[in-house]
Write a structure and sequence with these properties.
Elements lengths: L6 H12 L3 H12 L10 H19 L10 H11 L6 H25 L6 H27 L14
Helix pairs in contact: 1-3, 1-4, 2-3
Length: 161
Amino acid sequence: MLGGFNITTARNYLADRYRLQSASLDSALMLGMTMEPAARLGSEGDAKELLDDVVTNYAASSWILLLGPAAGGAAAGAATRASGGMMMGLAAIDVLTKDQRALLKQQLGSLALYLKMDLRSGEKAFVRSKEASKLLQAQISLWNVEHGDTTPPVSNYPSPR
């Protein structure tokens, strides 16, 4: 890097321009250490261009959607950093969580097998209760066909003594 363009200047530039938080700044700068330029940088503009390339590569490899340059200068950048800074697209989140969901489902199945638990026991009990309900309803319908659906009036019942 240039003599006057130190790590603090680089961090401030990335934080203000891309609204990166501390952990993302560190990750991007570590990636930048692997992206050595072919020759010594000649100006501050060259250094900023290199940092822009580093952040672009970091965002692409981390599935991060970068926000544009901070509108309103350092104060707006600081406010945005405090409120979040980076966003991920829904497609990137789906890609990341799809494998996690599959792994968790596999782990849940393995644990249930080890503990000799049936994960579908509630569903099976529900199906059995629906079948029993249908059977009882059929019996009630048959009773109503044979004996009628009407009940005698209450006054015809003998009084209990």
